[in-house]
Amino acid sequence: MNKIGFNLLVWTAMLSDRMNPIAERLKTIGYDGIECYLGETDTSVYARFGQHLQQLGLASTCVMTLGADENPISESAAVRTAALDRIKVAIDCAQALNATVICGPFHSAFSVFSRQEPQRIEYERSAEVLRQAGDYAAQAGIVLTPEALNRFECYLCNTTAQLRHLVELTDHPNVRAMFDTHHANIEEKSFPEAIQMLAPVLAHVHISENDRGTPGSGHIPWDDTFKTLADINYTGWLTIEAFTRNDPDFANAIGVWREYNEPWHIAENGLTFIRSMMSDR
């Protein structure tokens, strides 16, 4: 049975005790877990929130990104080392939270482009960093699940075919893959084919509408999505990732210039929608 999670990014990219009441309400609504952005590097912050989640009976996952100075595919060995070090810090924070998954586009730096198509050496560099990060994640009991992003946010992995290639090149049991419905809506020809492509390595799924608002309110091919996930016997997380302008710095960094839906509208209606889609399978 899939667990259903909710990403806190509709409120903020920075974790603090202010999120405790939100976690409590998400538990009351019926969520199984919460996904946190790894923007803070102080493990004590995650430990405190993790204890609160445990008291509530909520599990957790995490999401992260990397910047230009910590790019796994950089020509600079020092920058690649910085990328590995940053992922290790993220793993420490996730372990303090008691999270089991770190997802996100950490195969390369977010919104850093080379003005050419991805090169074989870049996949090899990324795989080497991910392989070493996988070793570190293994001792923490965490699975790393990099994701394919749309062409406007990265170039190394836009499609599930590219992502599967990278995961197989990495060849580490703690490095799998995630599927994000928003990005697939831009880059994939067919949702069923994309999900089937990732099936052997799939370990995390983001449920995200085409406009990043409430799932079920846009034009993502949800029937195809849930049917194919059921067909491949996917049993991992189904986590809603939606965005707002509640955290202006984060919103500006990812190009969110307007409101799509109010956070609790997304949380309440999104959960109802996922449950209805699951019950139809």
UniProtKB/TrEMBL annotation:
<dbReference type="InterPro" id="IPR050417">
    <property type="entry name" value="Sugar_Epim/Isomerase"/>
</dbReference>
<protein>
    <submittedName>
        <fullName>Xylose isomerase</fullName>
    </submittedName>
</protein>
<dbReference type="InterPro" id="IPR036237">
    <property type="entry name" value="Xyl_isomerase-like_sf"/>
</dbReference>
<dbReference type="InterPro" id="IPR013022">
    <property type="entry name" value="Xyl_isomerase-like_TIM-brl"/>
</dbReference>
<feature type="domain" description="Xylose isomerase-like TIM barrel">
    <location>
        <begin position="24"/>
        <end position="253"/>
    </location>
</feature>
<keyword id="KW-0413">Isomerase</keyword>
<dbReference type="Pfam" id="PF01261">
    <property type="entry name" value="AP_endonuc_2"/>
</dbReference>
<dbReference type="GO" id="GO:0016853">
    <property type="term" value="F:isomerase activity"/>
</dbReference>
